[in-house]
Amino acid sequence: MVCNDLRDFIKFLEDKKDLIRIKKEVDPILEVTEITDRISKKQGPALLFEKVKGSPYPIAINLFGSYQRMAWALGLNDFGEIGKQFSSLLKTDPDMKFMQKIEALFDLYKLSTSRPKEVKKAPCQEIINDKDFSLFEYPILQCWPGDAGRFITLPLVITKDPESGKQNLGMYRMQVFDEKTTGMHWHTHHDGAVNFRKYAKLGKRTEVAVAIGGDPVTIFSATAPLPYTIEELFFAGFLRGKAVEVVKARTVDLLVPAHAEIILEGYVEPAEEKIEGPFGDHTGYYSVAGMYPVFHVTCITQRKDPIYPATIVGKPPMEDCYMGKATERMFLPLVKMQMPEIVDMNLPLEGVFHNCALISIKKSYPMHARKVMNAIWGLGQMMFTKFIFIFDEDVNVQNTSEAAWKAFNNVDPSSDILISEGPLDVLDHSSPRPIYGAKMGIDATKKWPEEGYQREWPDEIQMSDEIRKLVDKRWKEYGFQ
After folding, report:
1. Summary mean pLDDT of the chain
2. Strand 308-310 to strand 59-61: parallel, antiparallel, or no bridges (unpaired)?
3. CB 431 within 8 A of CB 438
4. What pTM, to 2 d.p., does this model score?
5. Higher pLDDT, 94 or 346
6. I need a surface site. Which of 21, 24, 96, 129 has the fewest CB within 10 A?
7. Which domains does the chain have, with CATH numbers?
8. Is 292 helix (H, G, I), strand (E, B) or coil?
9. Neighbours of 283 (CB within 10 A)
């Protein structure tokens, strides 16, 4: 089932008994976070806070906070279907020639059903306010005690490339400075920042629209690490199997999701910056304060009875972890199109998406593991990966205990570790320099003589098939169930 909007998804979760309504009044300042964090750590249900101090609007949170809810959000029954579905749509085949792979990617983008459908009337514009409004009317959270203030945490930030006219949909936190301005925390590597720099070079302000809420696939698509040339609203339509309905914003030249709950319209000036942060981030640490552009809100449109969706991030596991794992499963087929020797990949929750990758490969030649490490570092947002472990194809990298056992036994620090330097995620605090530092590749595969290994590699301990079958047959005889 593909949900048309946020409230459809809430009803779906409620019917599945995977959402709890909280009717007691709660404070958006810290209290909502503490409640949600406790539920999230237990892989508990989605939450709908119906009565929020200081606001007439309810908060929906933890909507994507389990493998099952993440699958439902994408219109699937089981999380394991994500990679299979996407792989079949991409027509991946290890024997495909390079140009065939390029054609498969092109076919993905040109699917006619993916194009957003423009409508004249939309639920997100039932109420239009371009004069007397305040962001503080909404139940915007302060998540952690050290946060610099309240932050919009699940925004779909829409900008347009001034050259191509293509829209970008990204998710960047927004600190509320006052009733009508926020920070715009797009990192230098993000597409929103690319568009902003293009407008600044032209000496123009960047028009921005921020959608809050919408159907769950569109919300997820804002987080997807897509190539710059592919528009997220096209991608959302592709995943949904039907077009995302959009409507022209009232005061900026942008198309916005018609079924969003709230739309903020406004602009960012090219040279205006303000201190933003600190903020308790998905790394489990506070990201430090820094200078970021200022978003001026000039108009707010909304439904008559909007639901305010939010998320909190912090020490894993939390809601964003399941969104990240869905991205991992979805984009693995794309990675394998470029590196067919890859068998599987695991980005552990503890690595917060960009700190660690466990990868199994079909090793075919000496130093094959190093080729894969360097290729991964040259692959889009995978360039931020700080630790890459490469294993043989028989290792189940989804079993972190098995992967750790292999790595701890198979790695010789003097010969199996590659140190490289390059871009790091903006939120990485370990490097002495911002957004740049060292990364490590670890070859945990079985070593070959051609790689300088001069001894006999030992066999793993395995029981014979004959004895396994015998014990299987007699198991109940031993008194076991």
Report:
1. 92
2. parallel
3. yes
4. 0.89
5. 346
6. 24
7. 6-310 (2.30.110.10), 339-451 (3.40.1670.10)
8. strand
9. 21
